Amino acid sequence: MPRVLDRLIQQAIAQVLVPIFDPQFSGSSFGFRPGRSAHQAFRVARRAIEDGNRWVVDLDLDRFFDRVQHDVLMARVARKVRDRRVLKLIRRYLEVGIMVDGVKMPSEEGTPQGSPLSPVLSNIMLDDLDRELFKRGHRFVRYADDVRVFVRSERAARRVLDSVTAVVEQRLKLRVNREKSKVIPASRATMLGFAFYYTLGGVKIRVDPKALTRWKAKIRELTSRRWSVAMEDRIARINRYMTGWMGYFQLSDAFRPFRDLDEWFRRRMRQIRWKEWKMPRTRRANLRRLGINESFSHQWGNSSKGYWRIAGSPVLQRALPNSYWEDLGLLTLKTTWHRMRSAR
Description:
Oligomer: single chain
Helix content: 55-70%
Order of helices and strands: HHEHHHEEHEEHEEEEHHHHHHHHH
Distance between the termini: 39 Å
Radius of gyration: 26 Å
Shape: elongated
Strand content: 5-15%
Largest sheet: 4 strands, antiparallel
Number of helices: 16
């Protein structure tokens, strides 16, 4: 990892390189560029599908940031940078090496990880690929080393995969992961955490199921019964995560998965509250206070059933309804999605 002084110098170099190279980059390149975002990339991809390009070439560059050949990269930087001192400095940062068990090892390929220089150098390296795809008339989107090409038929997609692989490996001296690179229908394609689906109204956007799985894993961590923290602090942590997550995924047109996940999420919250009440006497009293009659309060307050089963019971759902959590300020996926969509 670069030191503070190295990062300062690398950032200074990057700030000079970006105005030189960025204006010439392809309009279909979106990663690590000023004024461009993943949302813009996905909207361009959706337009390509709406125009009838319903087959996707998913190109996987094998360990791109680790395999960039320095000579090939420096040749592309030197096309626009003439100052030998700057070129020499960039080269030294590329070849700085890595520490393995306390021993410095030379780096003969790859860009420095965590470096402010790495994003602009990666775009410089892959600009030739962008130009080749544009010259061939392909509709494509590239976000860093994440490449998708959109064509009209499966047969055309397979031809494109073969020809683009040749460009990447022969001209750029990179490797294409043939096991992960694939040709798939647009309805099964994923990109930057999103996926597509078709409706009578056109091509719509949904959240990639893998992203939803990661959301569940994080919420499971934040709603762990073993985490002893005040409910107010827990809700504050959850709300920060929920707001940040939905700030990115608000682009989704499908809210049904959010509704289903919210039910699971609130059940997690109910079991936390049930554990907080601990003693049967406390549980009976709280159930009565929340409007449950004496008979049910006594029955469920003394129940030996597990937390998860109790949390899903009609009694606890009536005692701790959605409005209860709303009054505590808890955000859910659906409410956060609606709020952000209406603010757009």
